[in-house]
Amino acid sequence: MSRSATTGLKKKLLSFSGDAGTPARVVVEDRLERAALGEHAQTATPERNTREESERKPRLKAGLLCARILAIHNTMNEEKHYLSKEKHAELTEELALLKGTKRKEIAEQLEYAKSLGDLSENAEYQEARENQAAVEDRIGKLEQILKHAVITKDHHAGMVEIGSHVTVQKEGSKEKESYAIVGSEEADIAEKKLSNESPLGRALLAKKKGDSVVVVTPRGKVTYVILDIA
């Protein structure tokens, strides 16, 4: 590696100040280390080379693993969220409330708690901080959901889709059960709203009237027959 290329890598490494262990920094460090090994190849012994290589591999492997984890995390964040128009409006209203009124209320709580002094033993301050964390967490979640929201449209009665109302019958049972297939945010088994990500909901998708689906449960496999789609 040329001297100018090595200098460029060193400058790039300095830009990662405070980011030790990140995938990008690990890769840059590895390239610099390879360059250094090349410059001292004539004086290096086989034993030293083996030792340095064994020390380098775990760090590089850890960096690549972190990169894969980050990629999976980003993919999960971009996952589609299926919502009805009503649910989309409800979540939009909730987000506006949290970012406006709720944030203001918590800011006032924090200011009041600070005025009481001695934050280390201030129960009001600790409670306000916990409320603030919960609100910000919910805001972040709602922003992700709405950013990747897909509004469910009219569906075809000939095939199970998100938004379908499906009537099924468990094999060996005379009882019929009806469910609305919805996105995970709207799922509520008490109201017979079945998430498209649940085992049964996932199995029913794209199936037609008369089809059978098999769902694996903790008690074993259960077969359902689709009686009707609306």
How are the SSEs ordered, and which strands pair?
Layout: H1 3-14, H2 23-39, H3 46-77, E1 81-83, H4 85-115, H5 123-147, E2 149-151, E3 165-170, E4 176-182, E5 193-195, H6 199-204, E6 212-217, E7 220-229
Parallel strand pairs: 1-2, 4-5
Antiparallel strand pairs: 3-4, 3-7, 6-7
Commentary on this structure:
With 230 residues, this protein is of the alpha/beta class. The chain has three domains: 3-77, no CATH class; 81-151, Transcription elongation factor, GreA/GreB, N-terminal domain (Helix Hairpins), CATH 1.10.287.180; 165-229, Transcription elongation factor, GreA/GreB, C-terminal domain (Chitinase A, domain 3). Helix content is 53%, strand content 17%. The chain is built from six helices and seven strands, in the order αααβααββββαββ. It has helices at 3-14, 23-39, 46-77, 85-115, 123-147, 199-204; strands spanning 81-83, 149-151, 165-170, 176-182, 193-195, 212-217, 220-229. The strands form two sheets. The protein has a five-stranded mixed sheet. Strands 1-2 form a two-stranded parallel sheet. A hairpin with a 5-residue loop joins strand 3 and strand 4. Helix 1 (3-14) packs antiparallel against helix 2 (23-39), helix 2 runs antiparallel to helix 3 (46-77) and helix 4 (85-115) runs antiparallel to helix 5 (123-147). It is elongated. Residues 16-21 and 71-76 have low confidence and may be disordered.
